[in-house]
Model the fold of this input.
Amino acid sequence: MTSFVFRRKLTVAWGDCDPAGIVFNPRFFEMFDASSWLLFEAALGVEAHDLTRSYGIVGIALVDAKANFLKPAKFGDTVEIASRVAEFRRSSFDVEHKLTLDGALCVEGSETRVWAVRDKNDPNSIATAPIPKEVMAKFG
Amino acid sequence: MTSFVFRRKLTVAWGDCDPAGIVFNPRFFEMFDASSWLLFEAALGVEAHDLTRSYGIVGIALVDAKANFLKPAKFGDTVEIASRVAEFRRSSFDVEHKLTLDGALCVEGSETRVWAVRDKNDPNSIATAPIPKEVMAKFG
Amino acid sequence: MTSFVFRRKLTVAWGDCDPAGIVFNPRFFEMFDASSWLLFEAALGVEAHDLTRSYGIVGIALVDAKANFLKPAKFGDTVEIASRVAEFRRSSFDVEHKLTLDGALCVEGSETRVWAVRDKNDPNSIATAPIPKEVMAKFG
Amino acid sequence: MTSFVFRRKLTVAWGDCDPAGIVFNPRFFEMFDASSWLLFEAALGVEAHDLTRSYGIVGIALVDAKANFLKPAKFGDTVEIASRVAEFRRSSFDVEHKLTLDGALCVEGSETRVWAVRDKNDPNSIATAPIPKEVMAKFG
Done:
């Protein structure tokens, strides 16, 4: 478990919610995706544009995602998302997200992502590459 | 594993895709959510409106969702989603979704849902209720 | 033209963008919708929940929306949205949104909304009601 | 007004709807965007991939969009969208969309789009190009 945690607050919008008046679940996966990018920007101290450019990657591609929905969040709620890398492996890593409302856990999310580059043999395909040591080091 | 399978085809829209030119992953969870509703409509032979009304439920609320992203789908691809209930328990059940492109598996999704009703003691809250036997029977 | 302006900044997420690498246009309408709600919360000094409850309305329902897309915004751009009520009428009003990037106008949006209540004769329908004078007064 | 009309039906999903139980308005702009692409595929007899490739365009970029929301559509409603090109100009054109439920008009949408190519002098920018005569001819 790395020590660098990225936190952000956001207010649930009308359009995030479904007829039950609560956040439509796939929106949480969108929030987690955005938080993963912001986590990397914050940890590495680069902007999103430079993240892909300076490391020569296509992105931090998602291969697996899951979430537990424990308590609903509704229109107007200001929630907090705390995100961190749970584990770095050679070319993949896990990100954990905890979404809370007034300190109570609402959604627990987890993603497995890969360090994705263009395939040298087929530029239309994506391959994985080893995560640079200096990248991992930034997460503590 | 129940035997009733609901299949539908859909064509990936421009707006479903991200800057990598492939479906933005949270969209798959939206597709699976829609397929779960359509699966119940098809199995029970009722329309969505009547599904909630005639069974006195708020919905089939999601408590857990996960997906593996094996192969990307891109703008214009016509994919097929096959959905079925993997297991019924007292008041919860699991739905499995397989999204394929030309027969090749792209995304495997799985949801745990509950049969959700208004809480008798607190109409602003949601409680679970036993799934009617005749509902389960319709899935084979 | 009222004088109260609500401004907020937001960073374009990966999932807001399409295969051209720029914000998928319907996302701007989502951003404007959220800004309209936040504008009302800020001007009236109430939370979204209380907005609907304390004024006995269903919402500020959209009847007309349009936008001009002048310059694209892309992944990682931090844009500003400035929103104000352009005109109040008896039971409807216009909201103007200007989305800028580094001071340059990217999108101009405009919405016509109505002060929406439950229809007394048909609780499943929506009717319009006169906008309270004290509501209008808060916008300057 | 061209004579070629593209029609499709779709069923409103749970996740398309907001806490008022009706389609969240920006979703209509997503539906219209998808219909515009499908209109071009149908009229030109090519797939989306080939549309961009064979004509050497980046896309049919949106510069202006508007919609009137006359009647709401709700979860489970099967609506029809009829789309046609209202006018072709040198390098831009207007698309009209009518979304109906049981024959009653719910939403009227209109888009202005341009035939968009990569800028020869700046491959990161987009320029407009004349719409080929044979393209216009296919719309009748």
